[in-house]
Design brief:
Length: about 325
């Protein structure tokens, strides 16, 4: 994907809902996907030479998609700050703090969350994350995360902080690490192609696209093709009863467990199948019993305004529009 496209894309979308409620944690506030990605405008992606460390100051609400060293210094009390990190699907993120000057006894905090909070919802959902919720936070004030590197489980993570005294601040070094079997991904882009593989693991993985899109499933393999032990027995409507299936979800938040099923596929498929999902976000979720190697390949592209209008025209409900 070209840089131009990315920049254009994010320029198009930009309503940034104001952060409200000084005393509340930012995760309860309304930050929209559009607002968020607009922050990436200033993040010019480029190939950097190996020894060059990209450095820039952090803003109270910020988004990072590249490695580097980022410093925050409060000019005034900053009580509700959040930095969203997003890397490529096959990458996880490591975060390390240095020169932390905050006053924990005064209520300052600095923490890393293994995932994202957006519109009050969390990604990955508790159901799909390997760790219990409490273990997805690393808090500087509790444990001095200063001394260790925090590593995310997927391509997104975030940093929350609150700083009362002007001049206080911290520096954070962000690096990417490769992840051979990515599970739970938020797409950085509105179009792309992805293959999700779950090799013999009793786990569920979600690929989330936080835009209205058309998704085309190109290939779906559930279970071993050389076995009679077919994974999908349609014992109930949808894929109820099947231990291995793919579900396409649509919704207006980011938590897949709160989204609505658009389609369930419990049979292997080799031809393309496509669907338009006119919701704020769409998720491809692969449910895996652990008995098989499951694999799904799909591509997606954004719906244009005309397509969205057409979808809306065909339906009365104002939730999301699916075709
Ligand atoms: C995966 O999802 C299915 C259906 O949503 C659920 O029944 C199952 O418990 C989940 N598996 C794991 C390991 O969370």
């Amino acid at each position: 994907m070209s840089l131009n496209f990315r920049v254009q894309l994010y320029c198009l979308l930009l309503v940034f809902s104001a952060l409200k409620g000084e005393g509340r944690y930012l995760q309860e506030n309304e930050v929209t996907a559009e607002g968020l990605f607009s922050l990436l405008n200033s993040e010019v992606k480029r190939e950097l030479s190996k020894d060059f460390i990209y450095r820039r100051p952090l803003r109270c609400l910020d988004m990072l998609s590249m490695e580097g060293q980022f410093s925050f210094s409060a000019l005034r009390p900053q009580l509700n700050c959040a930095v969203y990190l997003i890397f490529e699907p096959s990458e996880v993120i490591s975060v390390e703090f240095s020169s932390v000057d905050i006053d924990c006894s005064r209520g300052d905090f600095l923490k890393v969350f293994d995932g994202w909070f957006l519109k009050g919802e969390m990604f990955p959902s508790s159901e799909d994350h390997a760790l219990p919720l409490s273990e997805r936070y690393a808090e500087f004030c509790d444990s001095g995360v200063l001394r260790r590197t925090v590593r995310s489980s997927q391509n997104v993570a975030m940093i929350f902080f609150r700083i009362h005294s002007p001049e206080s601040g911290f520096t954070v070094t962000v690096k990417k690490l490769s992840n051979p079997f990515p599970c739970n991904i938020i797409s950085q882009t509105r179009e792309g192609r992805f293959t999700m593989v779950i090799p013999h693991q009793h786990t569920n993985c979600s690929f989330s696209i936080i835009y209205p899109v058309e998704i085309q499933i190109q290939e779906l393999t559930l279970g071993r093709l050389d076995s009679n032990d077919t994974p999908a027995k349609r014992s109930a409507p949808g894929c109820g009863g099947a231990g291995d299936f793919v579900e396409l979800l649509g919704g207006n938040g980011v938590d897949p467990s709160k989204m609505f099923p658009v389609a369930d596929l419990c049979y292997s498929l080799s031809g393309p199948a496509q669907l338009k999902v006119g919701c704020d976000s769409a998720v491809m979720r692969l449910v895996s019993s652990g008995k098989f190697i499951n694999r799904v390949t799909f591509q997606y592209r954004p719906l244009d305004r005309h397509e969205l209008q057409t979808l809306k025209g065909n339906h009365v409900e104002d939730f999301c529009f699916i075709e």
